[in-house]
Amino acid sequence: NLKTYNFSDSIIIFSKTDSIEDFNTFYLSAIVLFSKAINMGIPLKGGIAHGKITINQSKKIFLS
């Protein structure tokens, strides 16, 4: 149920629900992403938000 979008230097991972299962999938995905980045020497920073998100894929606009 996770969706992933990337543009410029940003990666956005989100879900349509806030179920425990989706959170666990998100959490494991973040662990894999950060582990690979650390192993490759790529610096990352991140944030987590909860709530509704507005997306315009064609204009690459993501608002929470």
Describe the protein in words.
It is a single chain. By secondary structure, the protein is of the alpha+beta class. It contains one helix and four strands, in the order ββαββ. The protein has a two-stranded antiparallel ribbon. Strands 3-4 form a two-stranded antiparallel ribbon. The longest helix has 21 residues, at 20-40. It starts with a strand and ends with a strand. The mean pLDDT is 85.
Primary descriptors:
single chain; 64 residues; alpha+beta; two-stranded antiparallel ribbon
Briefly summarize what is shown.
By secondary structure, this protein is an alpha+beta fold.
Strand line-up across the major sheet = 1-2
Total helix count? 1
Strand content: 25-35%
From the N-terminal CA to the C-terminal CA, the straight-line distance is: 18 Å
* Major sheet attributes: 2 strands, antiparallel
Order of helices and strands: EEHEE
User: What is the approximate shape?
Assistant: flat
Helix content range: 25-40%
Structural class: alpha+beta
Question: Overall pLDDT, averaged?
Answer: 85
Low-pLDDT stretches: none
Number of strands: 4
Specify Rg, calculated over alpha carbons. Answer: 13 Å
SSE blueprint:
Elements: E1 2-7, E2 10-15, H1 20-40, E3 54-56, E4 61-63
